[in-house]
Amino acid sequence: MSQQGYVATPPYSQAQAGMGGCSTGFGNPPPQSHYGVYGSLPQAYSALPTGMLKPPASSPSGMPQPPVSSHYGANIHQNGAHAHGFTPPPVASAPSMSPYGQPPQSAYNSMAQAPPPTQQLTNQMSSMNIAGYGQRPMQAPQSPSSSAPLPFQTSPPPAMGHPPLSPPGQQPPSLGSPPPLASVGSLPAPPMGMSGPSGPGTSLGGGGLQQPLGSQGYPQQPGSPIAGPYGGQMAGPQMMGPPTGAFPGGFHGGPAQMAGPPQKKLDPDSIPGTTQVIEDDQAKRGGQVYVTNIRGQVPPLVTTDFTVQDQGNASPRFMRCTTYSFPCTADLAKQCKVPLAAIIKPFATVPKNETPLYVVNHGEAGPIRCNRCKAYMCPYMQFIDGGRRYQCGFCSCVNEVPVQYFQHLDHMGRRMDLYERPELSLGSYEFVATLDYCKNNKPPNPPAYVFMIDVSYNNIKSGLVKLICEELKILLDRLPKEEGAESSAIKVGFVTYNKILHFYNVKSALAQPQMMMVSDVAEMFLPLLDGFLVNFQESRAVINNLLDQIPDMFADTNESETVFAPVIQAGVEALKAAECSGKLFLFHSSMPTAEAPGKLKNRDDRKLVGTEKEKTLFQPQRGVYEQLAKDCVVQGCCVDLFLFPNQYVDIATMGDVPSRTGGSIYKYSNFQVDVDGQHFLNDLRRDVEQFIGFDAIMRVRTGTGFRATDFFGAVYMNNTTDVEMAAVDCDKAVTVEFKHDDTLSEEAGAVMQCALLYTTISGQRRLRIHNLSLNCCSQLSELYKSCETDALINFFAKSACQAMLNQPLKAVREILVNQTAHMLACYRKNCASPSVASQLILPDAMKVFPVYMNSLLKAPALVGSAELSTDDRAFQRLMVMAMGVEETQVLLYPRLIPLHTMDVGSESIPAPVRSSQERLSETGVFLLENGLFMFLWLGQACPPDLIQNLFNVPSLGHLTTEGQMSLPVLDNAHSRKLHSIISSISQQRAKSMKLLIVKQKDRAEIFFRQHLVEDKGLHGGASYMDFLCYVHREIRQLLT
Ligand SMILES: [Zn+2]
Q: Each residue of 558-567: pLDDT tens digit?
């Protein structure tokens, strides 16, 4: 968030020319329509198409002039701008609103019956017969009469659960009947690729996935012999590689063939490509201003470069949904099986050219909330009765407006001060929280960072301890601080440990730091209170002295055993004693085998892979660690773990506390300072300096008719509604699934409000509010049109990573495949124009969904291969759980960038090509990145002058091999361009990526090839083409 000064004009002063428009100057009144829609009747929400403005003249009488930029009252400031001037308000007198953390009231109590999160994926599929797709799960045909154009609410769906599906006057599709056979012979084969003319969807026909008509017969007879996994119905000879048994049996094969015999292949360009979709969206919406004033508006893709202007809905950077049109009924939702979810990144980084969040201070009265559902004041509250009362947009309860908040309404029923109050006109803003929202009704103390360094033999020998100590001397000057503050309010403390713990007194008055040892690790206590947590600026000399001494103090250590849980416990005790929240930075290298609570044993048994018990490899050891996570969350103690393992360390267990406290896990296997030092330091710097909130609790409220049921993230759930995070940073995202508990109406839409209570880096208690309004539909075509593939895949990735703790991986993969087929079959059945069954028709908004899904199935966590390290798989599982949409997108579809053809004069990153080995060429050089790894791949015959320019050696043969290669910085255009591309990619990513240089046909190339996700998986899993064929067959079975 804004450590830098904010310079952009606040939205209030801008007159937007709609999408793509730019501001017309400081001080101009905004067009009425942008703001007015929120205060008026719900129908007006979506009445205005994007970019269309009502002239101000259309509201001649009584319309208040929108204020100019500086009109926000003294109680409002921009986030970060004046924060240092804040003084906590005095104790609130007789607060009428409940504190945030109190037990939920009324309807929210029913949440207790929600299924536990781990059940989620199963439940989602519960009504699907996994093995029985041939049994027509879609039930009976819809009777034509049900398509009568009656409003949905007044026309209950027919008994079979099918709502009206056709607009008036159109022949309703006959859901259960076979595709129109009569047209088979006469239907022209649609063009290949995604430009097919079949309705709104993408049609793959022609020589693509269409079965050769004539030759094998159509339609498929139920009992017809099926030759391979894809049956005789699919164009068998066109596929690469032999069939390997029914999908996902492809996972059971050994290492897949890397390059099958070049048979007659389909043109890979004929199937939907992610790179093309990304390019098209960038061309269409890139560089534009995305104004959030329209309900149910689908934002640009996460990969597109756009600017957000908040006009009543939260930026997609904060909240992104799987679909922007929720089905009106649970039946419709069940029918299509498209998950309804929002991915919420409450602290997402706001680019410098966008407005930081405003902070609203209502003084001791605190934020205004609905009496019944406790939703916070927002643009969805409707003022009535001359402004004396308001109706809650979430629960419809009519509330009195507090006297001090009263304001007259204009003739449109909007408050005269609409534009002066962020909470009435914006999607995202913050409230200063009153003491009611603080622990023990006391304002919180500033948070603390405790650095805890494993000084056992390995870490000393590798030079890691010295590296950390040197770096901390620089980093402690860069702790995050409030805008305008002279120094950071965050206190710091230091612990070193192996089998025992050493605490340091670094009080500024001391000439030398003092060490206190605790060798009884069974009952961890803090040996000193005063002088342990200090202000770095005050204690700089003592701390630097300590950091100089630590590497020498342990230089001769022989101790290789470590403890782990007691270290975290010590950190919690320190924060408890100081009555503050904070973060522990643990730098640890080995499995904790010393006699102590939380001692671990090697339980890495790869024989379990592929069995019912495989899931146990990823389940953390309970007991000590479970209690520890709970203690941490209660205290607001976040744990960041930097791991430097040389062998198995049981990451499933060691990562458990970090992953339940909003913390991060970093892993540097076989760490060597000269090779990996910079990579680690980049991560450490970013982590220490980043914007963060502490002791956070999040609640997602919804309008009537649906509710949040499941939560996936680096979070702790003590009950079914409160999402607790000891800390939340700018990269952490929580994926929230919604279910119907009643019907939704197209008029009212679906509104949601995420409220995050947290402590700032300077110790203020704040509420961060994000509001989002979606459309509702009684036609599934609307839902499919409004789908967001990147958000969908984030949901599936997280729910699968959650489900794999409790179910066999095979079952999880089957659920994913079946749900993919089901979602697409439902679209085909209800939304696509009639066409031959041999055509695969995909919704336009989901046309690349299969390639992401197939990549997810092959991801190390889910693939189920004994060749992969258990720790690597557990690590990826934990990473995915905390990821936002941007991160899962690039993880599951890595960018493959050709460099040999790059224009060294251009500023931009060359356009990526499809992640497939077919795109590589012997004469080429490619960069591949997925947010975790970055590879530079060098073709065997790549031009020597390019090698000379990049590496300063005359040929490829002069480069040493096996991961030892590094990329020098050279003074030529190619070298500069490559470094600029790498740096620009790195800035977009949450973690630093180590650059691995791979020569074609080297041993290390295997690791690179795992990331070519359109190809057959090296550890099992189908190629994209094969997967698409398989899904197509499943869809056809569902439709017959
Ligand atoms: Zn309410």
A: 999 999 999 9
